[in-house]
Amino acid sequence: MNATMTATADAAIERAREVLEQVPDPEIPVVSIRELGILRDVRRADDGQLEVVITPTYSGCPAMSQIAEDVAHALDAAGLAPYRIETTLSPAWTTDWITDDAREKLRAYGIAPPTGRCGTTAAAPAERPIAFIPKPLAAPACPRCGSAHTERLAQFGSTACKALYRCIDCREPFDYFKPY
Ligand SMILES: [Zn+2]
């Protein structure tokens, strides 16, 4: 491969990244699939084809086929065909991959972002004596008024990814994006 071909290949990947930056999550249109951590990679495969790697948020998430369609549509519209969309399940998606910007956008949208990080790869603190009992999750703050006085109404909200909470102070119900 000569230098000119390499430059062309890089330009296509750059263009694909720009285009995919604009693809929103089907369920939460204020954040992009890149910001949610669903878009894992845009690369040149070994056979030279443009390859986009996506990881579903929750297994069996019905939005996943929609996301693949949206990715394909965006790439087609930008004239980036041929390409390949790879779905990878390992490592599994985690709410830790949601960018800080996206957490702010979720809050502004009325969805409480996940509190803390799952930190699945981090070692458990040595001072925690009973490691097999899950630590109760802190109640999320109300995304509207910021109050910490919230209560859970249901384990599942508008989707399985979210729990339904209510703010005790402003009385508004809201979705909480559960740490995962
Ligand atoms: Zn409130």
Describe this structure in words.
This is Ring-1,2-phenylacetyl-CoA epoxidase subunit PaaD. Residues 15-76 form the MIP18 family-like domain. This protein is an alpha/beta fold and 180 residues long. The chain folds into two domains: 3-87, Fe-S cluster assembly (FSCA) (GMP Synthetase, Chain A, domain 3, 2-Layer Sandwich); 137-180, no CATH class. The protein contains three helices and seven strands; from the N terminus they run H-E-E-H-E-H-E-E-E-E. It has helices at residues 3-21, 63-77, 100-109, and strands at 39-44, 50-54, 83-87, 111-112, 150-154, 162-167, 173-177. The protein has a four-stranded mixed sheet. Strands 1-2-3 form a three-stranded mixed sheet, covered by helices on one side. A hairpin with a 5-residue loop joins strand 1 and strand 2 (50-54). The N and C termini lie far apart (43 Å). Bound molecules: zinc ion (ZN). Zinc ion is lined by residues 142, 144-145, 147, 167, 169-170, 172.
